[in-house]
Structure to design on (531 residues):
């Protein structure tokens, strides 16, 4: 599903590469934790998958596409197959829960009838039954993140990228978030989650990839957060 | 394509940016109406010119007994054979359409009519004072005046040649200057309009950066991301154009009222007005559309 072939990325005006010849394979339906200290290259990794950045070196294949040969024109097609969740939720404050989720479908031109059918389904999936008319500022952090996950998942992407989704949420609520991610993963969606949250990584027992200074220093299935230390 | 969604976004954009949008509309309206005025000016000058063209004539003045000029002093007043020769020369020229002889008596009668309200002026003029002349009409008064003048000037019996067009040249220069001034101001304002469109779109893009960030993230095509902004710029352009159209139509009505003060037609034909309005619409749309598009390419990259 995601295939990195000796990928390096050096940002302009920086001597140290953000990613340093990374080789990596993530299979369809996997759940992967991406761990490592700040600046270790986790965000760069996610941005490369989304093709927000291009690698300085190496090849990247996402959902069977060679990103180097993907024209700008086709980038939106790629992004429709990838859902994204962030630490800061990124909801539109002037739109209700329903509208926020529907927005993701409206802007890719989905018909209204389709939107009316799938948005309530995904609201149920993330556990926000009965809150579809709430505004983001009326929701708790955990609930807002559920809305963001619903928006990321509503178009049934093949891959869900989560960049520290529990970073702004207390541990008790984080468990709920992880349950939703797990539920999404069980539908066959590949999930890649960058995180600092050791407790969550340890409790989930999924594949863990650890980055340090842009290199993969550990890759274990059923790993824990801090084994390398 | 979801038109309702796009127009919803456009409406939000225009409302959030109300002051900028208003400024943009006003500047577009003024610049387009000035541009339209300039274009109408050009057309009007052309019309006046062709209207005068048919009335302009050359006056070939003949030597008379009392003529003090040097040209006539040698030969004395024009003789009948000289007169016949001049008339023949004029008739033989291909540019000349008609030649009318005006005798001294006829010239005096015309002067009497011209100065009927000014007895003092008239008292200076005696029947023999004014020279006889050939009044010559030409196919193209402006272009043909030179060759025709050259053909007869210097012939025995010819005193001088008067050209109506020479008087009008100054008038045309004045009109041309006014037209150029209007067009220069219109161009300056159009540049201001372009900058304002760019600024408005930039502001709008900044105001909606959350929305556009999410649109890009979920894979909205460039077209979808940019269309609301493009439509926004073009709507502002269109509203400005509508105001300009109203102003130009008003100017036409105003000119109709002024007609009585002018000896030549000043009315704008409906055809000219429609043509100019269509041109300004195209200018407005292309200007706003293209500027929005170019601005978006800078600020809304994938």
């Amino acid at each position: 599903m995601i295939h990195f072939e000796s990928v390096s990325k050096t940002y302009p005006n920086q001597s140290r590469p953000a990613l340093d010849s990374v080789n990596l394979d993530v299979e369809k339906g996997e759940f992967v934790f991406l761990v490592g200290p700040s600046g270790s290259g986790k965000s760069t990794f996610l941005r490369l998958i989304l093709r927000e950045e291009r690698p300085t070196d190496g090849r990247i294949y996402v959902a069977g596409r060679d990103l180097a040969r993907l024209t700008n024109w086709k980038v939106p097609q790629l992004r429709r197959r990838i859902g994204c969740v962030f630490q800061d939720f990124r909801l539109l404050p002037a739109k209700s829960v329903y509208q926020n989720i529907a927005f993701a479908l409206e802007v890719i031109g989905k018909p209204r009838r389709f939107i009316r059918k799938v948005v309530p389904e995904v609201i149920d999936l993330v556990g926000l039954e009965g809150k579809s008319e709430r505004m983001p500022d009326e929701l708790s952090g955990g609930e807002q993140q559920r809305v963001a996950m619903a928006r990321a998942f509503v178009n049934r992407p093949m891959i869900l990228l989560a960049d520290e989704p529990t970073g702004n949420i207390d541990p008790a609520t984080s468990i709920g978030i992880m349950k939703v991610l797990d539920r999404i993963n069980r539908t066959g969606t590949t999930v890649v989650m960058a995180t600092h949250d050791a407790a969550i990584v340890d409790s989930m027992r999924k594949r863990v990839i650890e980055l340090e200074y842009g290199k993969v220093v550990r890759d274990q299935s059923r790993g824990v957060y801090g084994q390398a230390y | 394509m979801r038109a309702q969604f796009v127009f919803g976004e456009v409406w939000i954009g225009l409302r959030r940016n109300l002051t900028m949008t208003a400024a943009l509309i006003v500047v577009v309206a003024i610049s387009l109406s000035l541009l339209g005025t300039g274009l109408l000016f050009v057309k009007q000058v052309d019309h006046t010119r062709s209207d005068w063209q048919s009335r302009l004539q050359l006056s070939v003045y003949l030597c008379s007994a009392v003529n003090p000029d040097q040209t006539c002093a040698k030969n004395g007043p024009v003789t009948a054979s000289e007169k016949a020769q001049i008339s023949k020369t004029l008739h033989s020229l291909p540019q000349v359409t008609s030649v009318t002889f005006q005798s001294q008596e006829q010239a005096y009668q015309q002067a009497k009519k011209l100065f009927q309200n000014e007895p003092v002026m008239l008292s200076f003029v005696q029947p023999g004072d004014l020279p006889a002349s050939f009044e010559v009409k030409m196919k193209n008064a402006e272009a043909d005046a030179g060759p025709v003048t050259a053909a007869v000037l210097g012939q025995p019996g010819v005193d001088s040649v008067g050209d109506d067009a020479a008087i009008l040249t100054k008038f045309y220069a004045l009109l041309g200057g006014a037209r150029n001034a209007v067009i220069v101001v219109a161009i300056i304002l159009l540049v201001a309009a372009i900058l304002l469109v760019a600024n408005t779109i930039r502001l709008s893009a900044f105001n909606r950066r959350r929305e556009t960030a999410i649109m890009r993230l979920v894979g909205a095509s460039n077209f979808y991301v940019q269309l609301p902004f493009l439509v926004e710029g073009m709507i502002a352009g269109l509203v400005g154009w509508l105001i300009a159209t109203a102003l130009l139509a008003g100017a036409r009505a105003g000119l109709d009222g002024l007609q009585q003060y002018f000896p030549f037609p000043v009315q704008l034909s409906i055809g000219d007005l429609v043509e100019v309005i269509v041109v300004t619409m195209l200018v407005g749309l292309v200007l706003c559309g293209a500027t929005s598009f170019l601005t978006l390419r800078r600020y809304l990259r994938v």
Remarks:
- The CA atoms of residues 156 and 168 of chain A lie 25 Å apart.
- Chain A has one domain: 2-12+24-220.
- Chain A touches chain B at residues 50, 72-73, 75-82, 84, 90, 92, 103-104, 106-109, 112, 151, 155 (CB under 8 Å).
